[in-house]
Design a protein that fits this description.
heterodimer; A: mainly alpha; two-stranded antiparallel sheet; 22 helices; B: mainly alpha; translocase (chain B); transport (chain B)
Chain lengths: 577, 519
C-alpha cells in the first residue's frame, strides 16, 4: 500500500469538491471556463475512479483502499473509508456518469451556469462519499448531504412544477432517514459497552453478530424459546424489528419501493436532464446499497421475518410500475415509473438471498444506472428540440433523426433485457434467483416462491410491452406533426455522450465476467451475513466477521504514518470476546 | 453585621463579567462627552473588543476544576465557562450586525451597546449562580437590560408594545420563580443550592406539598424565560417587535443563560427529590415545546416570527437534553415509556455528562445559526415597511441568490443548520442531544424530536425556496452593504459549516465542559 493507494479514495471523493472551490472563484459570466473546468474535474475523477476499480483485488480482503483517521471522537465516529466489490462498482458507475452529465447539460442549462456546476460537483462528492464510507455516521452525513445539491438541481433548473417536486423529494427522503438516525444511535449504544462504542461499520456489525446468531438459533427452536434470551440478544429480540424497520423505511424511500415511491415520478419529471440522470443512475442505488450493506447484515433475523412482506412490496412495485408505464402519456414519467419497476427487481434479487439473486441484483443496479441514465439523457436531447414530454406530440421521428433513433432503440433493448445486452444478464439472474429462493418457505408456503417468480416474470413482459409501445409511437409511423419535420439529428457532442452508454451496454452484455468478478466477493459475504437469519442455514464462518483497519491512536491525528497491512489487519476489538 | 472579607483574588473568577461591566461603564461615560452628531463607530468596536476579551477570559478558566467562588454564592466550573463563551460569541455577532441597523435608523448610541454588555454580564453571572437570591438578582440584571433594549427604538408602536409585553410577562415569570424559590427556602431552610439536597430529601416526606409547589413554580419561571410551551405566548410578539440584533441576542444569550441556570438548579434539586418526577415534568415540557413550536412556525410568512417560533422549537430539543439529565440508572430508564431497557447501559455520570455536553453544544450551534439568520433578516428589512408589517415577509427573500449570492448561501447554511441537516453544526449538535437522549432511554421523546424536526425542515426550506427558486421581484431596491454585518455573516457561516465538518478545539473544550459543580 503506497501513500497514493492510501489516499486514493479520499482523492476520488474530494477532488470534485476541490474543483468546486475553483469554480466558485471564477466570475459567474465565464460560462465556457466553468463548463470546461467542471468537465475536467469529472474526467480526472473518472480516471482515478477507474484506477480504484482496477486496483481492487477481487480475491483480497473485503474492504480495500482503506483509510481511517480520527474525527469527532466525542461522538464516537471516525473518518473511515474503504470499498468492497459492490461499492467500488457503484463508484465506477458514479464517476462514469459524471463527465457525461456535464456534457449533456451544455445547452440544456441556460441560466445560473455557475451554481449549476457547483451543485453537480458537490453532489458528486456526497454520492461518492456515501458509497465509500465505512462509518455508519459518516455514511449518514453523506447520505443526507446528498439531498441539498439534488434539491437545488430539481428546484432551480427543473420544469414548471419544480418547487413542489423539490420540496417533496427533500421532505420525503428526510423524514425516512431521520428515523434511521435514531436507529443508528440506538445501534451504536447497544452494539458495544461503554468505552468500546463506535459508529464504525465493523464495530457495530461484529457487536451485533453473536446476538444475531443466538437469536437466529432460538427462532428456529420451539415457540417461547426466545423468552429466555439475555443481554443483547434479548434486546434485539424486542427491538430488532423496530430498528430494522427504521433502516428499511429510510432505504425503501430512497429505492423507492412501492408504496413509498410517490416522490420519484415528480422529481424525475421535473428535474433537468442532469438531475434525472444522477437521480436514476446513482441516488436510487443508495437505497438498495443501504439494504445490502446496512439494513440486512445488521438485522438478519428481522430481515428473515420481514422478507415475504418486503418481497411482496418489491413484486407489487415491479408490476405496478409496469402497469403505470402502460398508462402514461408523458415519456419522462414513463421512464420514471420504469425505474420503480426495475428497482423492484433489484430489491427482489436482494431479498431472495440466493447467489443468483444477489449477483443479478448487484448487476442490475449497474445496468439500471447505465440504461435509465441513457434513456433520460436521450429524452433530454429530444426535449431540447421539441419542448414536449407528451408522446402524442411525436411520431415518425425515425425519419428525421435516424442516428438518434438507433441509439434510443439500443438503449431500449438494454432496458427491456433483450439477450446480448447487459439488462438480460441482470434480470435473468434475478428471476433465476427468485425461483431458486426460499421466499415461499419464509412466507409459510413453498409454492409461493413460484408466485413471486411468476409475477416478476410478468413484469419483464409488461416491460417489453410499454417500452416498445412507446418507441413505436414516438419513432415510427408517419410524421404526424409539422413541427417534427425539421428536427435535426444528434450532433457530435450529443453523439459522444451517448456512445459510452452504448459501448457499456454491449460490453456488459457480452463480457460480464470482469464486472461480476468484482461483485462476487461482496455477494458471497452478503449472502453469508444474510443467512445468519435463516434458521438452520449453514454458516460460512470465514465470511461473517467484518475486518477493518484499527483506529489510529491519538498521537497520529492526521494520517497513519505506517500503513497497516490489510491482510493482517487486526479486527476491531469486540466487546463480546 | 460582619461583612465578608474578600480579597482581590476572589473576584478573579468573575473576570469575564467584570470586563463586560467595565466596558459598558466606559461606553456610558463616553457618551456624556459626545455631541449628538459625533461619530460613534468606536462604540461597536469597543463592545466587540470587550466581548472577545471576556470570551477569551472564559476560555482560560475552562480547564480549572469546579470550585465555589464568592463564599459559595457562585461556582466556577467548565460548564459556566463554556456558557460564558457562548454568550460572548452571541454578543460579538449581535453587536457586529447592529452597527448598520442602528445607523440606518439614526439610533446609534452608547446606551444600546452598554445595555447589551450589561445583559451579557448578567447572563455570564447567571450561569455561575449557585444560590437562589443571587440567581434571581442576575436574572433581573439581564432581564431589565433586555426589556430596555426591546423598546430601544421607542418611536414605533411595535417596540413599545413588545417592550411592554415583555416587561409584564417577564416580571410575572420572575415573580413565579421568586415565589417558588421562597417555598423551597421554606422547606429546606437554605437558599444555597449545594446545601439544599440533604434537607430536600427529608422535607419531601414531611412537607411534600411545599416542595412540589416550589419546584413546579421554579420550573414555570424558567419555562417563561426559555420560552417553553405553554409559557411561550410572549415570544413571537416580543421577538418581532424588538430591534432585530436585540432579538438575536435574546434568542441566543438569554436562552442559553436561562438554560444554564435551570440545569444547575435542577441538577442540585434532583439529588434531593425523586428524579423520575423531574424527568416526567421535563419530558412533557420538551414534548409540547417541540411539537407546538414546529407546528406553529409552519403558517408564518413573516420570517422574523417564523424564527421566533423556531426558537421555541429549539428550546424543545434542548429540554430533551435537560430531561436526559435525570436518568436514574440503567434498567430504570425505560419505565416511563413502558418498554424494557435496550441494554445494561452507560454509567450514570457518563450519561449525564453526555446530556450536559449536548445542551452546551446545542446552545453554541444555535447561537451561530440563529444570530446569523437574524443578521440576514436585519439587513433585508427596511424601516418604512415595519409599520405595514411586511418588513420581514418571505417575499423580501425572493431571488436573493441572484442579488446577493453570498448572503443567500449564508442564509441557506443557517436554515439547514437550524433544521439539522448535515454537514452543519446544527446536525452535529442535534446528534449529540439525541445521542444523550437515546442513552437515557428517552426513545419516544427522541422519535418525536426527529419527526418534529422533519416538520421544521419544511419551513426552513421555504426560505431557501424563495431565495434560490423565485425570481427577483420587480423594482427591488439595491441592498446596502456594511462591513460589520458582512463580518458577522462570514464568521457565523464559517462556524456553521466548518464546525460541522472539522472537530477543532471546540471538541476539547466541550469534553471538559461537561464537568459541572457538585457532580
Amino acid at each position: 500500500m503506497s501513500f497514493f493507494d492510501n489516499h486514493l479514495l479520499n482523492l476520488v471523493v474530494f477532488l470534485p469538491l476541490v474543483f468546486a472551490a475553483l469554480v466558485a472563484l471564477l466570475p459567474a459570466g465565464e460560462h465556457g471556463q466553468i463548463r470546461t473546468i467542471t468537465f475536467i474535474a469529472m474526467v480526472v475523477d473518472l480516471v482515478f475512479g477507474v484506477w480504484a476499480y482496477m486496483t481492487y483485488v477481487p480475491g483480497g480482503p473485503e474492504f480495500q483502499l482503506e483509510y481511517r483517521a480520527r474525527w469527532f471522537d466525542l461522538f464516537g465516529t471516525s473518518y473511515h473509508v474503504g470499498v468492497d466489490g459492490l461499492a467500488v462498482s457503484l463508484l465506477l458507475l458514479t464517476v462514469f456518469l459524471g463527465p457525461l452529465v456535464v456534457l449533456a447539460s451544455t445547452t440544456y442549462i441556460k441560466f445560473r451556469i455557475k451554481e449549476f456546476h457547483l451543485a453537480l460537483l458537490v453532489l458528486q462528492t456526497t454520492m461518492l462519499g456515501a458509497l465509500v464510507s465505512l462509518d455508519v455516521l459518516l455514511f449518514y452525513i453523506f447520505f443526507e448531504a446528498m439531498l441539498i445539491p439534488m434539491y437545488l438541481l430539481v428546484g432551480v433548473w427543473g420544469a414548471e412544477d419544480r418547487q413542489m417536486a423539490a420540496v417533496k423529494f427533500f421532505l420525503y427522503t428526510l423524514a425516512g432517514s431521520l428515523l434511521m438516525l435514531v436507529a443508528i444511535i440506538a445501534v451504536y449504544f447497544i452494539s458495544a459497552p461503554v468505552g468500546a462504542r463506535s459508529f464504525d461499520y465493523a464495530s457495530i456489525y461484529n457487536g451485533l453478530l453473536d446476538a444475531n446468531r443466538q437469536l437466529s438459533a432460538c427462532t428456529a427452536g420451539p415457540a417461547g424459546a426466545c423468552d429466555s434470551l439475555t443481554g443483547l440478544a434479548a434486546t434485539l429480540y424486542t427491538w430488532g424489528p423496530w430498528l430494522f424497520a427504521a433502516f428499511a423505511i429510510a432505504f425503501a424511500v430512497k429505492v423507492p419501493m412501492w408504496p413509498l415511491h410517490t416522490w420519484l415520478p415528480d422529481a424525475h419529471v421535473q428535474a433537468p436532464v442532469a438531475g434525472s440522470m444522477i437521480l436514476a443512475g446513482v441516488t436510487l442505488k443508495m437505497g438498495t446499497f443501504g439494504f445490502w450493506r446496512y439494513a440486512i447484515p445488521f438485522f438478519p433475523v428481522a430481515t428473515q421475518q420481514a422478507r415475504p412482506f418486503l418481497a411482496t412490496l418489491a413484486v407489487i412495485g415491479i408490476v405496478y410500475g409496469a402497469l403505470m408505464c402502460l398508462a402514461q402519456r408523458d415519456i419522462k414519467k414513463l421512464i420514471a415509473y420504469s425505474s420503480v419497476s426495475h428497482l423492484g427487481y433489484c430489491m427482489l434479487g436482494i431479498l431472495a438471498i440466493t447467489a443468483e439473486g444477489a449477483t443479478g441484483s448487484a448487476y442490475q443496479m449497474l445496468n439500471h444506472g447505465v440504461s435509465t441514465g441513457a434513456l433520460f439523457l436521450l429524452f433530454g436531447y429530444l426535449y431540447e428540440r421539441r419542448h414536449s414530454r407528451l408522446m402524442a406530440d411525436y411520431g415518425g421521428i425515425a425519419k428525421v433523426m435516424p442516428v438518434f433513433t438507433a441509439a434510443f432503440v439500443i438503449i431500449t433493448f438494454s432496458s427491456i433485457a433483450v439477450p446480448g445486452t447487459n439488462g438480460f444478464i441482470g434480470e435473468f439472474l434475478v428471476l433465476l434467483g427468485t425461483f431458486k429462493s426460499d421466499l415461499g418457505e419464509a412466507a409459510g408456503n413453498p409454492h409461493l416462491t413460484a408466485v413471486f417468480g411468476a409475477f416478476a416474470t410478468l413484469g419483464v413482459i409488461l416491460g417489453a410491452a410499454y417500452m416498445l409501445w412507446m418507441v413505436q409511437k414516438v419513432f415510427f409511423g408517419g410524421i404526424t406533426h409539422r413541427e417534427n419535420q425539421h428536427l435535426t439529428d444528434m450532433n457530435l457532442r450529443e453523439g459522444l455522450t451517448v456512445l459510452p452508454f452504448i459501448v457499456l451496454v454491449a460490453v456488459m452484455g457480452l463480457q460480464p465476467q470482469p464486472f461480476l468478478d468484482r461483485l462476487e466477493p461482496s455477494t458471497d459475504r452478503f449472502l453469508a451475513r444474510a443467512r445468519v437469519g435463516t434458521p438452520g442455514a449453514e454458516l460460512q464462518e470465514d465470511r461473517l466477521r467484518v475486518e477493518v483497519m484499527a483506529l489510529p491512536s491519538r498521537q497520529v491525528v492526521a494520517a497513519p504514518s505506517a500503513p497497516v497491512p490489510l491482510a493482517a489487519a487486526p479486527a476491531v476489538p469486540s466487546p463480546r470476546q | 453585621m460582619n461583612l465578608p472579607n474578600l480579597s482581590l483574588a476572589d473576584f478573579l473568577p468573575l473576570l469575564p463579567a467584570i470586563i463586560m461591566v467595565v466596558g459598558a461603564s466606559i461606553l456610558l461615560l463616553s457618551e456624556v462627552f459626545l455631541s449628538t452628531t459625533a461619530s460613534r463607530a468606536y462604540q461597536a468596536v469597543l463592545t466587540v473588543v470587550t466581548a472577545v476579551a471576556a470570551g477569551a477570559m472564559a476560555l482560560t478558566t475552562m480547564f480549572e476544576p469546579p470550585q465555589e467562588v464568592m463564599l459559595g454564592f457562585g461556582v466556577l466550573d467548565p460548564f459556566s465557562s463554556f456558557l460564558t463563551f457562548v454568550v460572548c460569541v452571541g454578543l460579538t455577532l449581535a453587536t457586529l450586525s447592529s452597527v448598520s441597523f442602528l445607523r440606518k435608523r439614526g439610533a446609534e448610541r452608547g446606551e444600546f451597546y452598554a445595555l447589551m454588555l450589561f445583559a451579557s454580564a448578567g447572563m455570564s453571572l447567571l450561569a455561575m449562580s449557585n444560590e437562589l437570591i443571587t440567581l434571581f438578582v442576575n436574572i433581573e440584571v439581564l432581564s431589565l437590560s433586555t426589556y430596555a433594549l426591546t423598546s430601544y427604538l421607542r418611536r414605533g408602536t411595535r417596540p413599545s408594545e413588545a417592550g411592554f409585553k415583555y416587561f409584564i410577562l417577564g416580571a410575572f415569570s420572575s415573580a413565579l420563580l421568586l415565589y417558588g424559590a421562597a417555598l423551597l427556602y421554606g422547606a429546606t431552610g437554605t437558599t444555597h443550592l449545594t446545601a439544599m439536597a440533604g434537607p430536600l430529601s427529608t422535607a419531601i416526606s414531611s412537607q411534600p406539598g411545599l416542595v412540589y409547589a416550589g419546584i413546579i413554580l421554579v420550573i414555570a419561571g424558567f419555562a417563561f424565560k426559555v420560552a417553553a410551551v405553554p409559557f411561550h405566548m410572549w415570544t413571537p410578539d416580543v421577538y418581532e417587535g424588538a430591534p432585530t440584533p436585540v432579538t438575536a441576542l435574546m434568542s441566543a444569550g438569554v436562552k442559553a443563560a436561562a438554560f444554564a441556570a435551570m440545569v444547575r438548579v435542577f441538577f442540585m434539586v434532583g439529588k434531593g427529590v425523586d428524579p423520575q418526577m423531574l424527568l416526567g415534568l421535563f419530558s412533557v415540557l420538551a414534548f409540547l415545546t417541540m411539537v407546538a413550536g414546529n407546528l406553529l412556525a409552519i403558517p408564518q410568512r413573516n420570517v422574523k416570527r417564523m424564527l421566533a417560533y423556531s426558537s421555541i422549537a429549539h428550546a424543545g430539543y434542548l429540554l430533551v437534553g435537560v430531561a436526559a439529565l435525570f436518568v436514574t440508572g440503567p434498567g430504570e430508564q425505560f419505565r416511563l415509556l413502558g418498554a424494557s431497557a435496550l441494554t445494561g447501559g452507560t454509567p450514570l455520570d457518563l450519561a449525564r455528562a453526555e446530556a450536559l455536553r449536548g445542551i452546551l453544544y446545542y446552545l453554541l450551534a444555535y447561537t451561530f445559526s440563529a444570530v446569523g439568520a437574524f443578521a440576514i433578516v436585519s439587513v433585508l428589512e427596511r424601516r418604512e415597511d415595519e409599520e405595514k408589517g411586511t418588513a420581514w415577509d418571505l417575499e423580501r427573500f425572493s431571488g436573493l441568490a441572484q442579488r446577493k449570492p453570498g448572503w443567500a448561501f449564508a442564509m441557506a447554511a443557517f436554515m439547514l443548520s437550524l433544521g439539522g441537516i448535515p454537514p452543519t453544526i446544527g446536525f452535529m449538535s442535534k446528534l449529540l442531544i439525541f445521542q444523550a437522549a437515546v442513552d437515557a432511554g428517552l426513545i419516544g421523546l427522541t422519535i418525536v424530536g426527529v419527526l418534529s424536526s422533519a416538520v421544521g425542515i419544511y419551513y426552513y426550506l421555504r426560505v431557501v425556496v424563495y431565495m434560490f427558486m423565485r425570481p427577483v421581484p420587480e423594482g427591488a431596491q439595491a441592498l446596502e452593504k456594511s462591513w460589520s454585518t458582512e463580518l458577522a455573516l462570514v464568521l457565523s457561516t464559517a462556524a456553521v459549516v466548518i464546525l460541522g465538518i472539522i472537530p477543532g478545539p471546540i471538541m476539547g473544550w466541550l469534553e471538559q465542559a461537561s464537568s459541572i459543580f457538585g457532580q
